[in-house]
Amino acid sequence: MGSIAPTAVELDASVVKVTRSTNLRNVPLPGSLDELSHSYCSDHMVTVRWTFTNGWETPEVKPFQNLSIPPTASCLHYATECFEGMKVYRGYDGKLRLFRPDLNGQRLSNSAIRASLPSFRFGELKRLIAKLMQIDGLRWLPKDQPGKFLYLRPTLIGSGTQLGVQAPNEATLFIIAVPWPDPSSKLKNIPGEASGLKLLASEPDTIRAWPGGFGYAKLGANYGPSLAAHGKAQAQGFDQVLWLFGDDRQVTEAGASNFFIVWENAQTGKRELVTAPLENQLILPGVTRRSVLELARTHLTQVVGDLGALEVVEKTFTIGDVEAAWKEGRVIEAFVCGTAFFITPVKLIRNGDVDIELLKAGQRAGYAALIKSWLEAIMYGKDGQEAHEWSYLIENESEK
Questions:
Q1: Does residue 119 or residue 188 have the better pLDDT?
Q2: Which residues have CB under 8 Å from 119's CB, separation 6+?
Q3: DSSP assignment of 175-204, as one string?
Q4: Which residue of 1, 27, 236, 356 is surrounded by the most CB atoms within 10 Å?
Q5: Per-residue buried b or exposed e for 66-78, using 16+ beta carbons within 10 Å of the residue's own CB
Q6: DSSP bridge pairs for 313
Q7: Residues 180, 181, 184, 185: is their CA dihedral positive or negative?
Q8: Strand 342-351 vs strand 197-201: parallel, antiparallel, or unpaired?
Q9: 186-364, superfamily in CATH?
């Protein structure tokens, strides 16, 4: 049970059924309570049902509404749920774009397998999103307001009626679009201080992920257990938890973001861009992470302006390594990356009773700012990046 039968129908975005809303929602103003709620959705949503017997049914674009699932649904009892975080961007050329959507689609399909849910042809995800945005795009991301985006949440849940401990025999894929505040609005910066995140290193008895687990998959089960630690960190004035693992306290992720540090290697003296590896499956293979690494390997292995050349390194390192490098004056900067926070500098890490201050007032995280500008050009189709291979253009937007 739980694997797709040989004759099952594949997910197919070319046969979408469309039902338009007759009661359009108000588009929230920037900074409004609706926008800040992170839960006010656009007019329509996508839903697709899967069954073990028949496979994927006809996808639907329909008015945004609550889901109806039985109290015995697998997702409510056994955490058979996975999701993605994506954005759709209104470009400066007036076009709508997705950023590397096939990477998100592939990751969602891989996460589904880890959660005992059905996989699917991951290239269909971007086509389903395009169907949704062809209807909602013009109202929610007007062409005369370039540089804006909507947050996208594709989600797959076990939605069948069986309560027994078994892989789901029914599942539902849905996609919603949410107006999202500027990520910089999350930062609690004080005038005169550096702009960036404050991270609180996790305690040894609190673990986010472990080898052989599911830290590499984007499952709700990765997030719920971490929320208590996140709340405690925020109560102490921090933005995120810097998750550590093992007796040597390896640096893994920062909140739901991948963590990068730029330092001078103690042995070689060379400047490095360092992040945790994927091999032990402790961290999420972030789409933004992958893009940062590829851009750095392409453009930052030589001097760029006043920024020195970097060696790009994926390796295990510890909070002790970070603290030692800071004390020795070898740390250049650190930043996190992901769909929600995008590229955001880290100004401070508290490890026990030590505050590792990475940015002082007036300082700027140069590498982070440069990489961010490169990615923004691709996402919004500007500075000659209108047809970049990482962009997926959404055509045929409806005026209705």
A1: 119
A2: 4, 109, 110, 112, 113
A3: EEEEE---GGGG----TTSPPSEEEEEPPT
A4: 356
A5: eeebeeebbbbeb
A6: 274
A7: negative
A8: parallel
A9: D-amino Acid Aminotransferase, subunit A, domain 2 (3.20.10.10)
